[in-house]
Amino acid sequence: MRILHLGFEDPRMPGAGGGSVRTHQTDRRLAANGFRITVLTTRYPGWQERLQDGVHYVPIGVGQGNTRLGRLLGYVFRLPFEVRKRREAADLVVEDFFAPFSTMAAPLWTKKPTVGVVQWLHARDKARQYKLPLHWVERFGVRHHQRAIAVSQGISDRLTAMNPDMHVDVIGNGVDPAAWKPAPKVGQDILCLGRLEFTGKGLDLLLAAWAQCCQRIDGNLLIAGTGPDEAILRAAIEDAGLSDRVSLLGWLSGDAKFQALSDARLVVVPSRQETFGLVAIEALATGTPVIAFNIPCLGEIVPDGAGWLVDAFDVGALANEMEVRYAQPGLESVGAEGRAFAAGYNWDRLAALQAEAYRAAVSGPTSVVTGGETLTQRSVV
Prior knowledge:
Elements: E1 2-8, H1 18-32, E2 36-42, E3 50-52, E4 55-60, H2 68-86, E5 92-96, E6 114-118, H3 123-130, H4 134-143, E7 147-150, H5 153-162, E8 167-170, E9 190-193, H6 203-213, E10 221-224, H7 230-239, E11 246-250, H8 254-263, E12 266-269, H9 278-285, E13 290-293, H10 298-301, E14 307-310, H11 315-327, H12 331-342, H13 347-363, E15 366-370, E16 373-377
Parallel strand pairs: 1-2, 1-5, 2-4, 5-6, 6-7, 7-8, 9-10, 9-12, 10-11, 12-13, 13-14
Antiparallel strand pairs: 3-4, 15-16
């Protein structure tokens, strides 16, 4: 099968999120099984067209993509033209949903069977942030998709609430096998890892909780990642008088990331919203217990016995949980439970499920409205 994947983020771009990880981990396995895949991504400083693990990456846009806004606008402007050039060589188009409006309603203009891959549905939050009706764009796009793959049941429920006729396959994210390489141990520090978005990722809540409990915890708080709010985070740490108890590690990837997760005593995921929570699963795979807010999606992947869920956005409860769990004996057994749970998130198995969903999208019947009549079409690769 020939796939044109609208991926937005390049996995090599500094600060790229979990969506680009999923795209590459899935696509490289499909490529190894005979799929021919081209991924259109945004440009960024240092971008290059390349073949990586059998997947053809083509950055598109205007200029070098030096700014976040420039990358977004360049990608949105160029994408329909680039798809038009390549669609005759594709059997299926895959649209990754991306910020700030989720979807460009790709099925309306690709003229090919199209599947949405949905890790992100936060357009309403972005609408409040930017004071633009971005959630209207999201709703319009979702209503024009017939098939989608959601990374969690929570995302699936939200999709079908907007479009009850949509067929949704729930296929989670996997864990890099490298997560199992470090030897499990009970570390000294508490780690938060991910994109540095001050409010969206709950870093403001984490700092407030840490200020309440850090004097009763021996280790420090380590924050790893890069992102648009790094300067805001640094200023907030200094303003709170926490500079001697909080360290920023910068961007970590590969073995360095998994070693940092393994070295931590606890991993905290204080996000206000998540669509899956890859960091939580990766932490469990390294044998480190997780503390997270009890929000949709995270509640699905932090099981009893391997971590703890805190009432959403309750700073005092988060502070208390970090203090209590830091001193809890027997964290080794909690870590072992987490590793056993994370073993179920296997990229090979998940990629095989995604391949089945792609085949169904191409060979199965789809309803197309034309001239006021609904026709049933069936195409076979």
